[in-house]
Amino acid sequence: MANVETFGAIIKGETPVLVDFFATWCGPCKMMQPILQQVHAQLGDKVRIIKIDVDKNQQLASELNVSSVPTLAIFHKGEIKWRQPGVQQAGVLVELLKKQIS
To answer: Does residue 4 register a pLDDT over 70?
Structure first.
């Protein structure tokens, strides 16, 4: 079985993390997948991109006050640096993430 990292450990790392809070039943959430692939293609291993299913992780979603999906957030060294509900464009996400890459 693969090493399963906890959310807390992932967001505390040196690498900026883009988190996509989504739900399987959410139409706009499905639109994020190709956008996240574009972000990964541009930034590669300089950032981590993870998806969190709010229905399977209700406690985490509640702790972070995620009330609508999709909600995207950028964490770096354990701090939330940016968050926004709704579908975001790849170019916007790339620029936001570049600011976090040291």
So the answer is: no
Q: Is 26 a catalytic residue?
A: yes
Give CATH superfamily name and number for 20-100: Glutaredoxin (3.40.30.10)
Report the alpha-carbon distance of residue 36 to residue 42 in Å, rounded: 10
17, 18, 19, 29: the catalytic one is 29
> Residue 5 has what pLDDT?
74
Domain ranges, ordered by start, for the chain:
20-100
Contact 89, 8 (CB under 8 A): no
Distance CA 30, CA 70 (A): 9
Query: Three-state SS for 78?
Result: coil
- 8 three-class SS: helix
pLDDT, tens digit, for every residue of 20-66?
A: 999 999 999 999 999 999 999 999 999 999 999 999 999 999 999 99
Catalytic residue (one of 10, 26, 49, 94): 26
